[in-house]
Amino acid sequence: MPLTAASASREIIVGLHDVMAKRMSAQAKLNTVVDLIANKLRSEVCSIYLLHDGKLELYATHGLRVEAVHVTRLSLSEGLVGTIAAEGRILNLDEAASHPAFAYRPETGEERFHSFAGVPIVRRENAIGVLAVQHAEPRCYEDIEIEALQTVAMVLSEMIVNARLADGGRRGRGETGAQRIAGLKLVTGMAKGVAVFHQPRVVVEHTVADDIEAERARVYSAFRRMREQIDHMTRDAEFGTIGEHNEILETYKMFAYDEGWSRRINEAIDSGLTAEAAIERVQQRTRARMQDIDDPLLKERMHDLEDLSNRLLRIVSGRMGTAAKTGLQKDTVLIARNLGPAELLEYDRRRLKAVVLEEGSLTAHMTIVARAMGVPVVGKVEDIRHVASEGDPILVDGDNATIVVRPTRALTQAFEQRMAMSQKRRAQYATLKNQPAITTDGARISLMVNAGLAEDAAMLEASGAEGIGLFRTEFQFLVSAALPGRQSQLKLYRSVLDLAGEKPVVFRTVDIGGDKALPYLADARDEAENPAMGWRALRLSLERATLMKAQARALLEAASGRTLNVMFPMVSEPWEYEEARALFEEQVEWAKKSRKPVPKAIRYGAMLEVPSLAEMLDVLLPRLDFLSIGTNDLTQFLFAADRADPRLADRYDWLSPAILRFLKRVSDQAVAAGVPVRVCGEMGGRPLEAMALIGIGIRNFSITPAAVGPVKAMVRAIDAQEVTARVGKLIAAPAPDLRKRLSDWAKRHRIPLG
Ligand code: PEP
Ligand code: MG
Fold this sequence. Notes:
This protein is of the alpha/beta class. An eight-stranded mixed β-sheet has the order 7-14-13-9-10-11-12-8. Bound molecules: phosphoenolpyruvate and magnesium ion.
């Protein structure tokens, strides 16, 4: 069947267009279609198999025996046709019978035909049927012939779906049933819901172009817009979405400008497809190629291309919003490659039940926000965006870092039972709410919570914590479309203090930058390659003094008549703390002069998150009312391991002698100077880690609200002196498996670890 790809496809597509418009039965249309394709491709056989009641049924044929129509039925994975549908792949064989999957069906009379080529008919990434051609002469089909078949299959899929001829279409890679996938534990908890993609997939509705020039123009302007977006993202990498870090952006850029890609899309348009269908068509081809790639790095890059292709599709079809913009309709398991904290906060908290990410890391701010929201998160779930389809039911077990896509009834029942048990355990923790956090030998441990939204403050009472040890004021900035003014800050701080009542609240001045993106604060300096070590937190606040002054005034006024506890993030040298404190003191003077109300006392603290500060504690401690150790940042700097990089997410352990020795030195020095020291990073919210911290002398914690119960249960079961002796030995003569040794010891002493 010699032909030129675009012209042959185009002729068939024009013909299909006419058939689609005709008033005739669906069966008659299919019969016409197989004749048309066979004729144009000069093929002896052309057959269409469609998925019906879970089987691939021969619906129409030109060349095989007509008696076989609606009689020949194959299971998914059965025969050549079943293999094509199950694996979503193309088969191109000079001798069909020599393929291991070949299943002879005598009723078709196909024994005369040696060569065989088949392509899946795909809808929403799932095969709903197969289009096949056959010849008596044994020969492989040429690439352009296969391409023509694929293009035709694409248009056929629209026709088949419109005529409701096939099942909705299960996915094409044999993943029809339940699938359990393991990932990385990011936020514990169990939840179930339906899959919703953060970046919704565009379903191509119209495949046949009315005006090819107009389609070309649409693709041209979509490419221009997409390239602008990518350039913009690369420029603003500092405040870009996490996950879209430099390497990915660079690859994006490379693909976005790839002439080969745009040429292939244009060729597909030439063959008669709409812009959307052409993009999808080229994407399908990439997907098919991806299946044969073993190199994981190359595969990853192919995913990048797929992301970009989805972006182009959204631009060309004008559907740019995320699922948050459209609104969640049901209990949702949100699926994304990665998310930024601000993106997560856009979702309706009543509907958002869990998040599953292809990337993700333990101390990325998105994870911290999810933890604060009580939303379980499983990260590093490879390929989830391809395994699950929009609307698939999903069970998320954040405690064991596994998910089940499309669970069976039995799996769902077992999951629900475990969910009920975990609720029971939570209820048991609730009974500890009014019990003090005291070890068996009488050491008092202070448990406060980390918060960032007014709702978190409302949870304070329920958690039984002693106060808010870290209020991340930047969260308000993250959820706002523009810089929050002094009045709205004042309103939030006041309501937090009111909700906390007698309990103390430690406000941290804004920690913007790093992975906490603020699109409205981007300026020339946002091009940093390494934002976590860049222009963020106190560094940014000190330079943008007006921002810091507004915050200081809001805090001072909100805390009038009470004690204001304020601390500064990312202090690297004592002078930064002094400058920030001086700025606050100036505002106090200003308030007094202006006869504005001021707090009855102010306690100033610094966060120790940058290792250099540990060397300057002799200078700093006398100036502090308290010290707060932010282990999330501190450990990323100690290990030189980006906290937001998923590849490093489980590489280093908090329970390492290096971390514990470092923290012990800091804690000992603060205690000797009589300055209270508190750990407020995520590390303190894990019972085993918290136990190790108690072992090096830490007595004050600020942790995620859900961790208060489990940590308190651990505290009440330990003898602090015994723990100190044990941890002391482990860090003095360290073994590589510190975590295991400590947890074995805890088990032997029947210490509950959540
Ligand atoms: C930390 O770094 O440990 C910390 C508590 O601050 P954040 O996680 O907000 O950076
Ligand atoms: Mg920090």
